[in-house]
Design a protein that fits this description.
By secondary structure, the chain is of the alpha/beta class. The protein is built from ten helices and 15 strands.
């Protein structure tokens, strides 16, 4: 099969012909229809993730059609499926109690096993997969990726957002835009923070109640003014210390900070513990979404409860993935890229 392979960090992915994946006994092989290009991939491409090495194939936001099924697989050839990026084992306490996204035996394609920057991908633990309706395009389905699902879980589980609350989101990449769209669905008021005016205007077009350019003003002070005392919930969507601290400092007393952005490297950063202590803040981490929550989210999207089409800005070929990753080195345009052409 054709695949984009990591050979040297920060250099273009190598487009190679590699062996087709072997089918797991408890899983399937998918012909990949689409795969999102995610900032988590960027961290791996730059050498910031310990499970990405020379020879790795990135890609964890994918959908496709089953071309081979193992003897213990739940699905069959021809099934059209979407995958959560965290594949829980299905047998441990975490999986049995509904939090498969915390499974200690989890498998994440692209991080430790070959991912979906390729024509085919092997998916073990196929009980995590979910049927994809014929009415949803592969690009849109892959655009859900880890960004929409992670944002939905962050808002509905970790932060437990209530209608009328102020939600601040720091960074308007895939996660940030997802938070905006989904928080508005939940009836929240949303203030969006970024340093790119184009992205802030894009956020206003899609329902942001207010925006803050972090390059021009003090973020926490601006949000306190906008919200009349601070946001009740703040979502950090970049994984860096400056936005993490801005997120903490913009909160009202008893506010809830949710760390969605994945810190790179060793993951260490300095945070304003005085803000946490003095305002008695809650600090939540979150990663992914349990697979059982997928059907409801997909149904909401298909009913038109929320329009996630703004998520997908462009469809690209496999050979274009490197330029998308390289662009993440600096401010990026609104929306995300999805690989839908794997022959070039």
């Amino acid at each position: 099969m054709r695949a984009a392979v990591v050979r040297n960090f920060n250099e273009d992915l190598s487009i190679e012909t590699v062996s087709d994946p072997s089918c797991p006994d408890n899983g399937v092989v998918l012909e990949v229809a689409a795969c999102g290009v995610c900032r988590s991939d960027y961290h791996g491409w730059t050498g910031g993730h310990p499970k990405v090495q020379n020879g790795s194939i990135l890609g964890h936001e994918y959908c496709g059609t089953v071309v081979e099924a193992g003897p213990s697989a739940k699905y069959k050839v021809g099934d059209r499926l979407i995958a959560p990026f965290i594949l829980g084992c299905g047998s441990c306490v975490a999986c049995h109690t509904g939090v498969s996204n915390t499974c200690a035996q989890q498998i994440v394609p692209g991080f430790g096993v070959p991912g979906a920057y390729a024509e085919f991908v092997a998916v073990p633990y196929d009980h995590n997969l979910v049927y994809l309706s014929d009415t949803m395009s592969p690009a849109l389905a892959a655009g859900l990726g880890c960004r929409v699902t992670t944002a939905w879980h962050a808002l509905t589980d970790r932060a437990d957002v209530k209608a009328g609350e102020w939600v601040a989101v720091h960074g308007t990449g895939g996660i940030g835009l997802s938070v905006l769209l989904l928080a508005k669905l939940l009836g929240a008021q949303v203030v969006v923070v970024d340093i790119v005016d184009e992205k802030l205007e894009h956020a206003k077009m899609h329902g942001a109640d207010a925006t803050v350019n972090a390059a021009k003003v003090d973020v926490a002070a601006a949000i306190h003014d906008i919200t009349g005392g601070g946001a009740q919930v703040s979502i950090e969507a970049l994984g860096i210390d400056v936005t993490t601290n801005a997120s903490l400092e913009c909160l009202a007393t008893l506010g809830r900070h949710v760390q969605v952005g994945m810190p790179s490297g060793e993951g260490l950063m300095q945070v304003n513990m005085r803000a946490i202590y003095a305002k008695q803040l809650s600090f939540f981490g979150t990663r992914g979404m349990p697979s059982w929550k997928y059907p409801r989210l997909l149904e909401m999207i298909e009913r038109g409860d929320v329009d996630i089409r703004p998520m997908v800005a462009r469809e690209i070929s496999l050979s274009d993935a490197s330029s998308e990753l390289r662009a993440m080195n600096g401010p990026t345009a609104p929306g995300t890229a999805v690989i839908t052409e794997f022959k070039r």
